User: What shape does this take?
Amino acid sequence: MKHQQLLADEVREWIDQADRVVFLTGAGVSAESGIQTFRQAHDGIWKQYSPLDLATKEAFLKNPEHVLAWYAERRAKIELCEPNNAHLAIADLQSRKTVTVVTQNVDGLHQRAGSQSVIELHGNIISESCLDCGATDHETPHDMPPYLRYCAFCGGCLRPNVVWFGESLPEQAFSTAVDTMRQADLLFIVGTSGEVYPAAKLPEYVDKKCCRIVLINPDATPHAQMADAFFGGKASELLPQLLGEYA
Ligand code: BV8
Ligand code: ZN
Assistant: This one.
């Protein structure tokens, strides 16, 4: 494995030569903002629940207030969090390069850091949508505990505007993400376990003849096999080092 410094110099070369830089990010990029990743056991009352059991339409239909309370608690925490240096380094790069962020995160921190072109594969926790007609223009209340509310247009139940396990990803978001990967000439995969599909499949769409892949994660993930460079460590330390000269 090449020495990290040598590799870092090489990656800076790749950034210099690149036109269209893409970041595929996961929960790890928000970890240092204080938002728990999915692979960490959730804290407090949620410790005994797995997101896989809560982030589903079935769980919502079975006990809507329970699921709404989980989202309300996550939303309240997210609102107290700030983007970290990983989000900021990505946002800074767009002053010099065409940058697209394809994120699995629902916390909105890339946008709050100033990233302009963000594709939210799994929706966002800040807003709500109607379970029946999909309408999204409803103000999310801050009442605690949250209670089930209904769509002003069709009377359907309002739910968090995220993609649950077992639900298809927003067609537009996914097809734009595929096109973005196809046109990329440098892809950073940052802070994702690479376990959730179809998001984890997106790096396979890059044209390996002209796009290099850089993996940034504390430990190797399934994406390590396709990466041209792997940096083991924290996104908020590594990204400013690699992208920093563009700050
Ligand atoms: C779909 C929104 C099919 C909600 C999320 C049975 C039925 C149906 C589908 C399936 C099924 N079995 C499997 C599937 C597919 C399923 C799936 O992939 N399951 C996995 C668990 C195997 N996928 C789906 O269900 C998707 N839909 O397939 O539909 C379909 C087809 C046709 C018709 C109908 C349906 C929908 C998936 C989206 C689910 N929603 N989020 C919410 O947030 O509440 S997913 C959610 O979990 C996140 O959005 C995120 O994508 C995912 C967690 O992944 P990561 O982001 O990678 O986070 P993770 O914690 O795993 O890893 C963090 C990484 O960061 C780690 O590697 C860690 O080391 C690293 N890290 C930690 N600290 C740092 C760091 N890195 C850098 N710096 C640090 N400081
Ligand atoms: Zn409706």
